[in-house]
Amino acid sequence: MKLLNFSDIVKAHHRLRVILPPTKILTSEELNKKLKAQIYFKMDNQSQTSSFKIRGAYNAVLKYYQDHGHFPKKIVVQSSGNHAQAVAYVGQKFQIPVLIYMANTVSPYKVKLCRDLGAEVVLCEKRSEANQLAQDKQQQGYFFIHPSDNDDVIAGQGTSAYEALKEIGEVLAIFAPCGGGGLIAGSYLASCELSPNAKVFGCEPLKANDASRSLKLGKIVGYEDTPHTVADGARTLAVSTRCFSYLKKISGIIEVNEEKIIYWQEQISKIFQQKIEPTSALGIAGLEQYLQCNISAQDQKFLVIISGGNLE
Q1: Contact at 8 Å (CB) between 42 and 163?
Q2: Helices (H) and strands (E) in the chain, counts
Q3: What CA–CA distance (Å, rounded) separates 283 from 261?
Q4: Contact 38, 297 (CB under 8 A)
Q5: 312 pLDDT above the threshold of 70
Q6: Which is the most buried residue in 55, 75, 243, 293, by most CB within 10 A?
Q7: Closest by Cα among 17, 73, 25 to 46
Q8: What pLDDT is attached to residue 126?
Q9: CATH class, 54-150 region
Q10: Class level of CATH domain 6-52+152-306
Q11: Backbone torsions φ then ψ of 13, nearest 5 degrees
Q12: Are 231 and 257 in contact, with CB atoms under 8 Å apart?
């Protein structure tokens, strides 16, 4: 498998910049004083469909058009919500039928958002069943867009860190949620040229710590069924094979307990007066843990990616 590089992130950014305005970067004096650091938040909760997933969805479809000279006739995905909504949005924009398989544990609100965008949503008993059904549809001519195990999705998701680092310059470290691993992989690739000395940390729920366990064991391990965490965007059964190649290059995975996820969701929502979904709190919770263990990193500059804001 050929790995992506920084140029792939740049190409994705060129595709997206016409139709996807850059999201804002915010900072908080109050929070900087509290944690003794210079923290910059990339607010992808303010993107189209309220999450970073729109970047990968757009890039995958636009790259398909670039390669084939036409859009796919129909698209299929499996997702816990934000990826599904992003693909449904892109499908509506380009008038492409979209079929979505989801586990029945997903947020009813996210199901409604997808159906409101014109997508067909099929609920399954288990996430593993949804995964298999979506992959099988490729035999019927569907263009399958995996939420993370797809080069064009990874490159698109990397444009979030790319935009941020272009604006704020080099940082000591980058913190972002880790579900399937696409956002972390893309962030790592973006940092290679724009902030080559930066550490990159994936942050995942302690109750859904498959990425952390996989890195410790040196092989991918996961769950048979959806893990129970409030961070629904990180309820993936396992990191993807493609993304695992990049996870082995980053500085590590930080595990966050449920209490900290809830605490930081409330705090960031209050500070910025914006909708922040629980998964988005993983980055700042991970940074807090990092700063507690690395006193010498105080007063340094950090990037935290706020991945989404889909709440009822």
Answers
A1: yes
A2: 13, 10
A3: 9
A4: no
A5: no
A6: 55
A7: 25
A8: 85
A9: alpha beta
A10: alpha beta
A11: -65, -40
A12: no
| DSSP-derived pairing of the beta strands 143-144 and 75-78 | parallel
How far CA 178 is from CA of 138, 203, 231, in Å, comes to: 26, 5, 10
Question: 0.85 exceeded by the pTM?
Answer: yes
Query: Predicted confidence band at 264 (pLDDT cuts at 50, 70, 90)?
Result: very high
- The pLDDT tens digits for 186-202 are 999 999 999 999 999 99
Tell me the mean pLDDT in the region 37-53.
97
Nearest of 151, 145, 191 to residue 169 by alpha carbon: 191
* Domains of the chain by residue range: 6-52+152-306, 54-150
What angle do helix axes 6-16 and 53-68 make, rounded to 10 degrees?
90
Give the tens place of pLDDT for each residue, 123-173.
998 888 888 999 899 889 999 999 999 999 999 999 999 999 999 999 999
∠ at Cα 118 (114, 121), nearest 5°?
50
DSSP assigned state of 71: -
Residue that has been written with the tokens 């010498």 in this structure: 296
Domains 6-52+152-306 and 54-150 share a fold: yes
